[in-house]
Amino acid sequence: MNDKKIDVLLVDDHAVVRAGFRMLLSSQAFIGQITDVDRGELVCHEYERSHPDVVVMDLSMPGIGGLETIRRLKRQDPAAIILVYSIHDESVYVERAMQAGAKGYVTKNSAAEVLAEAVSKVMQGQRYIDPEILPGLDDFKQPAATLHYGEVVELLSPREFDVFCRTAKGLTAHEVAAELHLGYKTVANYNTTIKNKLNANTTADLANIAVALGIIKP
């Protein structure tokens, strides 16, 4: 990671929980400004006001709840990075949160270092699922390794294919944006679409697919 600190927006309807997670995160050297709100209805406005790098959000809240909040925020900014922290460790909650647009999922029972690691990882563009619940997700969104080259070309638009190839080769979103003369958020949006189309979880999955198809050398 570079030296830029990660600004965080905490979303939880319990003041004590927010205070605890604020203290936990603020103890990490890489965490910058921390703001918080107590319900989903306030998230989009606060996100626009404070421009956080990562939104750390509970699912079980009064009002519109966490899943709908994720969907609304992703409509507002498809590049928004959302990490769910929840009391629920069942796979159905993880899958629904990730399908709604979350980038990671940890439980409130996790050790402090797990949440800190999760924030760091999702900020780097990786997906993160709490290691304690990952074994229960064996069938969760396996990468589409069986695709053929022609199918990938068919699935992806020409611009998506350009982004896919560069991302699979290890270029960051900023580097891809510079090469293709696109905005960073545009590239981030393309990457989200590409992963969805190819049933991939991570950039490493994209690289594996590209290697399997002979698009890049291993």
Mean pLDDT equals: 85
**CATH topology call of the largest domain:** Rossmann fold
What strand line-up does the widest sheet have?
A: 2-1-3-4-5-6
Number of strands: 6
Assign the structural class, choosing from mainly alpha, mainly beta, alpha/beta, alpha+beta, or little secondary structure: alpha/beta
Q: Strand share of the residues? A: 5-15%
Helices and strands, in order, run as EHEHEHEHEHEHHHHH
Give the helix tally: 10
Shape: globular
Total domain units: 2
Which architecture of the largest domain per CATH?
Answer: 3-Layer(aba) Sandwich
Domain Response regulatory: 7-123
Protein name: DNA binding response regulator, LuxR family
InterPro entries: CheY-like_superfamily (IPR011006), NreC/VraR/RcsB-like_REC (IPR058245), Sig_transdc_resp-reg_C-effctor (IPR016032), Sig_transdc_resp-reg_receiver (IPR001789), Tscrpt_reg_LuxR_C (IPR000792), WalR-like (IPR039420)
Modified residues (4-aspartylphosphate): 58
Descriptive labels:
218 residues, alpha/beta, Rossmann fold, Arc Repressor Mutant, subunit A, 2 domains, 10 helices, globular
